[in-house]
Amino acid sequence: MKFLLDILLLLPLLIVCSLESFVKLFIPKRRKSVTGEIVLITGAGHGIGRLTAYEFAKLKSKLVLWDINKHGLEETAAKCKGLGAKVHTFVVDCSNREDIYSSAKKVKAEIGDVSILVNNAGVVYTSDLFATQDPQIEKTFEVNVLAHFWR
Asked: Which of 12, 52, 72, 73 has the most crowded Cβ, counting Cβ within 10 A?
């Protein structure tokens, strides 16, 4: 009996959700404009961070790019400038709390308040857990976990 009641309660919800999805298929929500917004992207020197920076550059956002790799950061910045974005770069070690704090203070003073933060920096080691050295495990946690709290 309870199962039948649950089905009867689920049916109207399914109908409403289906109708809503059908309407949104033809009348999509208006997307937020990020033109001129200050976007800070960590780990922007390569990979997903670099590609994210390119997409925001196409949308004419003001980019603040952080990475530990200066060469990769400069390559990303050059391409983003070519796409028409205003770009500011900072070499930041996201495993170092003081480096994060000082860089964030510089960004706020020189550029302004960040509107969008893309927390992309990460460290990955390809060895299995038992072969991973203690300093590598510590670095992984400093960047992938703790750094999210220092920004």
From this structure: 73
- β-bridge mates for residue 61, sequence order: none
Instruction: State the pLDDT at residue 2.
Output: 83
Q: What is the pLDDT of residues 41-59, one digit of tens each?
A: 999 999 999 999 999 999 9
Q: How far, rounded to the nearest angstrom, does the alpha carbon of residue 108 sit from its chain's CA centroid?
A: 18
Give Cα separations from 89 to 43, 56, 67 (angstroms).
11, 15, 8
* Tokens 């952080």 sit on residue: 66
Q: Provide the pLDDT for residue 144.
A: 86
Helices and strands in the chain, H and E counts: 6, 4
Residue 99 near residue 133, CB atoms below 8 Å: no
Q: What was the pLDDT predicted at 147?
A: 84
